[in-house]
Amino acid sequence: MPEEPELDELVLATVKKIMPYGAFCSLDEYGGREAFVHISEVAPRWIKNIHEFLHEGQKLVAKVYHIEPEKNQIDLSLKRVTESEKKAKLEESRREKRAEKLFEVAIKLAKSTKAEGIAARSALAGKYGNIIEAMEAIGEKGEEAIAGLKIEKGLASALLEVASKNIKKAHAEVSGVLTLFSYEPNGAEIVRKILLSFPKPEGAQVQVLYLGAPKYQLKAAAQDFKTAEKALGAASEAILSAAKEAKASAEFCRMEK
Hints:
Distance between the termini: 29 Å
CATH superfamily of the largest domain: EIF_2_alpha
Number of helices: 7
Radius of gyration: 23 Å
Helix content: 25-40%
Strand order of the largest sheet: 1-2-3-5-4
CATH topology of the largest domain: Alpha-Beta Plaits
Order of helices and strands: EEEEEHHHHHEHEEHE
CATH class of the largest domain: Alpha Beta
Number of strands: 9
Shape: flat
CATH architecture of the largest domain: 2-Layer Sandwich
Structural class: alpha+beta
Strand content: 25-35%
């Protein structure tokens, strides 16, 4: 992960010091880098007492909404984080911690040296990007997942054993309600074509379920919330765009759990 967060990135933060006008936080994923949440960014309504919402030591999911490199300043927002974004970020953090723990268990089981552990981590990251995807792939695909990778034999065996016993295929679902209708004589056919207009997403499944005209449920399922959210967003945008082009009336409302 880079040393500095990016604009609009979701981050994990810990409240360190609370002031009447906001709170200073440390960014958990960036070595404790300091950031600030102004009181106006804590909640969508006016706040009289910030202590009603925040306390020292509290863990937060926040969005980076302003960065001033010349002042070494990072500003965070809580009110700009949706419930689905919060859930996705916490799920990603949980998966990362679990994957790291299982990787360390495999190293101890194989009695691997530090160099062997570093080499294995590098090989897995080179193929999968991060340890989360790597461990989940090993758990799902077995030997196929590490075939051809330069991982010490004993450690490879331990990784297969630990992943197969402890990692189950993750599953996440997100959905929303779509209101769609057309006043044209062939309105039913127009609506049908619009509902089929979204592209097939990679790594996710998207379904359109009939709730009773003119409402439909748009549902996306994937191994993780981030992928499911991306698929749902792409499908809803494609449908709304197709509806606009066909001069049909369409509105999409995200369902928050």
